[in-house]
């Protein structure tokens, strides 16, 4: 699993490009990705595993997470990927509901060599599924990593979609294995 | 409500065909650019149904509906294309390829000029509304996005996102009147019924309100997270708060926030419709529009669209009784 994700991430490791970044600049077309998986576990049980903004240990690519503010709005976390010295992603929580079993966060800082996106926001939600099971839904909205016109291939819209899809798939696959008891 | 209202019945009667199921009610339609599926959904807001899906390649976002020209215009930033369609047939009339990053669009029907912002090159393209030929460029601040033309024909304004300012131009000769500092990263821009400019600041979660005559900010209203578009009805302003999935409502008299309404995910374009009796807002992630009663301030309906509805611009068409867009065959 870990290897698979890193293979996915490695594709997008690019030499440092001279990307002129004002931090909020972005490309012309916002992209969206929605991935779901069904698991044979009650929504409350799934939410108990993934419904804590400060604990992303369920995702195979996340080595560690440190943060402040718990699950309150504006809480922050820094995810370290792969190993102790791995790349990091800084995120902030902007919506959280135990009742709706959903939280929303956005990335405040990530290098495009790690995840080739800008202006990234995401929702993670658990909904009732079939036969008492759960549907886990992970959605992202983002612009490509290259904020200017005519992006290089590794920082274009397709690269952004592929990278985010890879991260979501790795996480949902891990949850699927976990709750299917395989 | 707008400058076209008076002349509309005269012109539209000749250009739009009368449908067989004509009623005595005036019609209200939305032309929604679906950026991710590269098309436009034409929605009948009274029947609450999509009546046409028009393919528009290149990820369209910007739109302006021009009833006095019996046309609507779209901007596709990915293919850098501006297109002109016939309102009566919804067929493509002509298209033009531009440089840079064409994004927002507005139209001055009196002079027959179309304005298109260039996100990447701090300028506005000035095009002939008839054949889309380029006549000149206007210089703006960095990353111009939303554009709005004064319904009374005096000015053109652009929201210059990365310059934190609004550029105000004199429509007479297209000279710069003033650059006006607003909040952080203004993107959407609109004019209220009293002729004031509202710029939605996505970076500071506020709306800056400008009096064009003095070119000054008279109020700054805090709204929900990432405000994007602004619409007006019943003496109120409605902003789409992209990250909050809400619409913030504030009064146009004292600029006090009244309430917020839950809508779909990533609300974007917003406008009044049905002669001010309806507010229509698109939900980019949910692929729907929300219909809001501006008096009761509640959601009263939803219509499905294509993928990624933006409707960035003036996207509502109001028609006289019995007349419908896209109803005429060539």
Automatic annotation (TrEMBL), chain B:
The answer to whether keyword Repeat applies is yes
Q: Which residues form the signal peptide?
A: 1-22
The alphabetized UniProt keywords are: Repeat, Signal
InterPro entries given in the database record: Haem_d1_sf, Host-pathogen_enzymatic-act, Lactonase_7-beta_prop, NHL_repeat, WD40/YVTN_repeat-like_dom_sf, YVTN_b-propeller_repeat
Q: Where are the NHL repeats?
A: 101-130
Please give one Pfam family short name.
Answer: NHL
* Record-linked PANTHER family: DIHYDRO-HEME D1 DEHYDROGENASE (PTHR47197:SF3), PROTEIN NIRF (PTHR47197)
Identify this protein by name.
YncE family protein
Origin species, per record, is Roseibium algae
């Amino acid at each position: 699993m870990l290897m698979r994700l890193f293979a996915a991430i490695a594709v997008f490791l690019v030499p440092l490009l001279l990307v002129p970044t004002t931090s909020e600049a972005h490309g012309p077309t916002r992209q969206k990705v929605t991935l779901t998986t069904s698991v044979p576990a009650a929504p409350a049980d799934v939410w108990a595993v993934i419904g804590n903004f400060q604990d992303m240990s369920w995702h195979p690519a996340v080595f560690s997470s440190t943060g402040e503010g718990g699950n309150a709005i504006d809480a922050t976390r820094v995810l370290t990927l792969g190993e102790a010295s791995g790349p990091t992603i800084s995120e902030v929580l902007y919506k959280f509901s135990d009742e709706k079993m959903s939280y929303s966060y956005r990335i405040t800082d990530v290098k495009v060599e790690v995840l080739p996106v800008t202006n990234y926001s995401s929702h993670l939600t658990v909904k009732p599924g079939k036969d008492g099971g759960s549907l886990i839904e992970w959605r992202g909205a983002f612009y490509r990593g290259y904020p200017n016109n005519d992006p290089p291939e590794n920082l274009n819209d397709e690269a952004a979609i592929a990278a985010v899809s890879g991260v979501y798939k790795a996480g949902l696959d891990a949850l699927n294995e976990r709750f299917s008891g395989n | 409500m707008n400058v076209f209202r008076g002349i509309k019945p005269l012109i539209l009667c000749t250009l739009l065909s009368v449908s067989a199921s004509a009623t005595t009610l005036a019609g209200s339609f939305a032309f929604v650019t679906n950026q991710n599926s590269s098309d436009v959904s034409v929605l009948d807001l009274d029947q609450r149904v999509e009546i046409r899906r028009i393919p528009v390649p290149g990820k369209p976002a910007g739109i302006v509906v021009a009833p006095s020209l019996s046309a609507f215009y779209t901007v596709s930033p990915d293919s850098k294309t501006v297109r002109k369609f016939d309102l009566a047939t919804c067929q493509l009339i002509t298209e033009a390829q531009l440089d840079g990053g064409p994004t927002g669009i507005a139209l001055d029907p009196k002079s027959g000029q179309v304005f298109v912002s260039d996100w990447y090159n701090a300028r506005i393209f000035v095009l002939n509304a008839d054949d889309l030929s380029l006549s000149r460029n206007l210089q703006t601040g960095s990353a111009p996005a939303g554009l709005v033309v004064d319904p009374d024909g005096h000015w053109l304004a652009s929201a210059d996102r990365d310059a934190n300012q609004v550029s105000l131009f004199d429509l007479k000769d297209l000279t710069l009147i003033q650059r006006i500092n607003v909040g952080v990263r203004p993107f959407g821009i609109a004019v209220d019924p009293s002729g004031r400019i509202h710029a939605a600041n996505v970076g500071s979660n506020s709306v800056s309100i400008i009096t064009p005559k003095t070119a000054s900010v008279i109020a700054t209203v805090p709204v929900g997270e990432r405000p994007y578009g602004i619409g007006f009805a019943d003496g109120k302003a409605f902003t789409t708060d992209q990250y909050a999935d809400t619409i913030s409502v504030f009064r146009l008299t004292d600029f006090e926030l009244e309430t917020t309404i839950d809508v779909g995910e990533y609300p974007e374009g917003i406008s009044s419709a049905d002669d001010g009796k309806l507010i229509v807002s698109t939900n980019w992630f949910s692929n729907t529009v929300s219909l809001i009663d501006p008096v009761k301030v509640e959601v009263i309906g939803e219509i499905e669209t294509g993928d990624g509805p933006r409707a960035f611009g003036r996207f509502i068409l109001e028609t006289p009784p019995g007349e419908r867009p896209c109803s005429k065959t060539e």
